[in-house]
Amino acid sequence: MQDATDAQLAAQYEALPYPARDPRDEAKRLVVGSPSHLAEVDHWVFGARRPAGQPLRALIAGGGTGDGAIMLAQQLAWASRPGEVTWLDRSAAARKVAEARAATRGLTNLRFVEGSILAPPALGPFDYIDCCGVLHHLPDPLAGLKNLSTLLAPGGGMGIMVYAPHGRTGVYMLQDALRLIAPPEETPAARVDIAKRVMRHLPETAWLRKNPWITDHLPLPQGGGDPGLYDLLLNPRDVSFTVPQLDTLVRDAGLRITCLVEPVRYDPDLLLPDPRLRARTAGMSMIERAALAEALAGNMGIHIAYLARAEDPPATPDWNDLAAIPILRGQDGAGWAKGIRNGALPITYDGLRINLPMPPLAAAILARIDGKASLAEIARAVEAGGANPTAVARDMAALRAAMEPTNRLLLSAPPAA
């Protein structure tokens, strides 16, 4: 399935491994994100039902310079959880960077395999597969997704990221301009030079200058440096997907979307407080509602989704299990509690401010979520502070309903059997 454009892509990632990473920075920080954060995989893929002691076999398909693979392997190692993460990519230059990053961290649960998802080597099966930032560059995204689905173990799931059109306003216009003045047939180094010269003279009216959410073309450390500039504006193949288009791709591959991250961003009711408008959204399907939110917000440059096989039963986290242990992402419970103002918690996504209604006992509950206490233990602790048990149960349910869709409040994997 390779073509001339695919050959140009291969040359691009050999010349400019993406994203730009320095292995020496591993001593300073771990790059984290979505998909494939271990807490998200436990919650959204396995419904917080897969025991932590069960080995996790994960594939990072299109691993690049290693962000997803390093993140997941390090999180497994920190938690002393068994499993192995397999990095798969066809770029030897990217592999060199990823291997150096893994060596700096001393990771022993990560292996490297060179190959393409369009003709994957004999691997698997895998409990979890990551394909982040790859499908939108393939000559046949559906074939690539189908190939990966065949590597899934029973009950397994996937995490993917693809470009979305509305939040990338300005990108495709500049891609058109640069194809004219810096043709794809030229070397990556020559094209980068011309692109930088163009960016220095970009008119004030260019839409990319008005899009604050796109930064990959900026110099390091604010942006992605030369690799980011090339990947954003000079990439020879770049296809974006609206929510309905992504849903069609996923369904055609025999899969289904189980979660769009973050779910709250795809809720049009938070953007449309008018009751008459909400009456109209009430009858919409999940995909229709998400498509409406996407079109209204206009700031989504990517879509992150967790997937399952279409025939598999949903793996839904059980918040009624009082032995379940909740965890928080982003900051600790006290930090989240301090952010509550006038009964609401403001959260901003790419310039869009969302005010989440918080129940009266939210601060007291959040302050007791430490990743160790169960739902029952948290409830008892809040009750010991003088709260009525009925009010505690009501507010714990309300807090979960508000914060789970933000991807900030999740259930952890159950302990090893």
CATH topology of the largest domain: Rossmann fold
Q: Please tell me what the overall shape is.
A: globular
**Helix/strand class:** alpha/beta
Distance between the termini: 45 Å
- In the predicted model, the low-confidence regions spanning at least 5 consecutive residues are none
Report the helical percentage. 25-40%
Helix and strand run? HHEHEHEEHEHHHHEHHEEHEEHHHE
User: Number of domains in the coordinates?
Assistant: 3
Strands of the widest sheet, in order across it, are 3-2-1-4-5-7-6
Number of helices: 15
**Percent of residues in beta strands:** 15-25%
Number of strands: 11
Tell me the name of the CATH homologous superfamily of the largest domain. Answer: Vaccinia Virus protein VP39
Provide structural commentary.
There is one protein chain. The chain contains 15 helices and eleven strands. It has helices at 4-15, 38-45, 67-78, 92-105, 141-149, 171-181, 188-200, 225-234, 243-252, 275-281, 286-297, 333-338, 362-366, 375-384, 389-403; strands spanning 56-61, 83-89, 110-114, 126-132, 152-163, 255-261, 302-309, 326-328, 344-349, 352-357, 409-411. The strands form three sheets. Strands 3-2-1-4-5-7-6 form a seven-stranded mixed β-sheet, sandwiched between helices. It has a two-stranded antiparallel sheet with strand order 8-11. α3 packs parallel to α4, α7 (188-200) crosses α8 (225-234) and α14 packs across α15 (389-403). The mean pLDDT is 96. This is Methyltransferase domain-containing protein. GO terms for molecular function: methyltransferase activity. Residues 61-156 form the Methyltransferase type domain. Keywords: Methyltransferase, Transferase.
